[in-house]
Amino acid sequence: MGDQLLEMLARRKSWLDRLGLGLLVFLATLIAGLMGGASAQEVETVRVATFNAYLLSPIFKCANAQFADCLLQIPGETEKQAEHLADTILADTSRFDIIAINEAWDEDAKQILIGKLSHDYPNYVGKIDAPLVKLRPQAIRDAITSLDPAAAVAIYGQPIEKIDGEDSGLMLFAKKDFEFLPLPDDSFKWGSGDGETLDATGEVGFTLYEHCGGVDCLSAKGAAIVRLLHKPSQSKYTVVFTHMQADYFDKNPPERHADAREAQFAQIEKLIETTLSPLSDAQRRRERVLVMGDLNIPIFHGTPTEWTGRFATSGTYWTDGYYDSWAVTNPADPGISNYIDGERYDYILASPQPYRSGGIEGPICVQHVTIPVDFVDLESDHNLVAADLNLGNFFCHPGIAYKVNMTKVGVGGKPREEEVIDWQDGQDVTQIRYPGSMQWFHVVRSDAGTYSIGPSTEDVKIDIFLPDNMTTPIASYYGKTSKIVDRERTMYVHTYALPREFYIRATGKDRAYTGDYALLVRRHTCATKEEACLLQPGEAPQGATLSKAGGLFGTQNEAWFAFDVVGQADSGADQTVKLFAEGLPDAGNYKAELEDFTNTNGSAAPAFEEKGTERKLSDAMGDGSTGYIVIRQGTPGGADVPVWAFMETSVRNLELKALICEDETNPELGSDDIYTELSIDSRSLRFPASGEREFDCDDSADHKDWEAYFGPRNLTFVSHAGMKVIEEDDSSPDDPSRLRDFPDLPMGVTSIDGVRTPLIWNFEGGRYRLNYELRMRQNKSVKPAP
Q1: What is the reported pTM?
Q2: Contact 80/88 with Cβ under 8 angstroms?
Q3: pLDDT above 70 for 24
């Protein structure tokens, strides 16, 4: 199109003669740019996040009988947490454009976040506060009484009747691509009323929650609203960020406050609808409205009736006008955002409905919602939740993923099963249409398999996710891409051993890329050594079909299964590897053999044991041992014969993440001096190697990163691992052994998330927990590409 316009201009010579050469070059460049690039409104890649930062003020740390001792020990503690949080955000600022933070109550911590983040995130809300002592004096007194009145008086330096409690704890940061806009209706505009406090670089609306329960009444919890212009797209974002009433399941009996949250949601509805009321219907349809924060709606404690009533009940404001983006994009992933309660408390609500169609005119597409793993190791008891937003496109989120439908064909006398996804109903559906676009593809089969998956250009990146973990992609088996020539196209593929169901995500090489591609999804038939199926420890069996005589798609008389042994115990012991071949109906006509086998410990190839239709071998194998199981049929019969192979190993990979003091041992004076002893295979190791680590957790938890405070993070064993947590001056009758064994992996389970199910030590009046992860194999590539 650009070339045609230039040719047309060139024909109008008399007009061109009157143009200077510089102006002509400028016009040509402008036309080419307009024809080849995305317009401003087509560049809308926005990434948002919400985080309960656990930056507690002294009242939430030391409101107990040992407050004097506690106050001596906590200086600098929360400030370090704020530094850690800011550094983690700044480690990769491309991940977040808008960050909503709650539970930031410590004043020094707030200033640290503003100081460190405001260069990259110059639009911010630093503090919102309300005069609680005037607005709800009795509720504050009741909250203080439920804690420790003497501690409160000492911490605030005021008599109880003058204590004004804590601020909202809300903060927000937005990048330079945004700017604050005036609120369309300023009824809720905050900062100029009597006793209202606001530190922000633009207009902020706020509603203080009128209903609260228990200790929540001590802080100015509420909902804030800002309106931001996304300058690259000129889209307008209304962002509501909040921290709602909590339940307290650790109380006896548990305190539940669904009624308070019900009233708080009504206030948020009024805040949004009043603030946006001047907008026309057309403007409202184009408005990007997000509600983010710790909503404290439990899902896994009892039946999720509160969640269902809020987000799955037609005819209600929050169901018809908003949706829980995690539930829509990751329905099989529990999305635990608070590991203490094992709950998903932190939400990103989008409006009005999930994207289905409509392109630019449709609703914003929430492409992917994740829990970034580096934030899991921060000191907070919550995890950060992030969402990637963009203009709508084909298959732009997992809920509308393309359903992959591979077909079997014969190639070179052998069967092949694949699908090349490119055009559908006359439309080119595989393209990174806008900068930052994603496309999703969904594979569901009856059994596990080996796949080669890749695009037709190296400018498109492919990631694989399992339905129950949509944050961490699965590593490919080989470390590099391979080239497959499919018809006239070269495909750049990675190879994976995958379960029966998985998702494929396609993105550009960077956030600016746009372009066309085709996607190859090929399931290995295991028919040849080159297309062998891959065995990985603990994974579901890989299957193949030996063809009957005169098979429609060619003849398959062999099934090749590759295996590679990875890892060795820190003690130096080899792992025990078991290999299985199953489904062999006739020992005379069907054989299982070991080929191209190398055991790095020098041992010869073991023999298969025969038992019915199963063949099994077991041996000690060193790291790097490799080979193939080959199942062969002699003479094809009258029916196809399905066969399987799988692999087991004794090796275990232990990642130690953090030791957390949840409650200090009695008496809670001074601090706990802690060291650990780890029993691993035949060895006993002390961490730290000498001395102890000091824990102080009179009220709030004390979280210490394992690698920073104790020792190596990753350990490998083949037999047994257990740990003792020892408090140097304690002799606790509650936990005399202090030994806790790491669990074994049950059959069919390849990993245990020890953040959700930690090891627990109960001392007299004290409690410690270890966050860890136990894996049969690490999520890493096994070897270079063949």
Answers
A1: 0.91
A2: no
A3: no
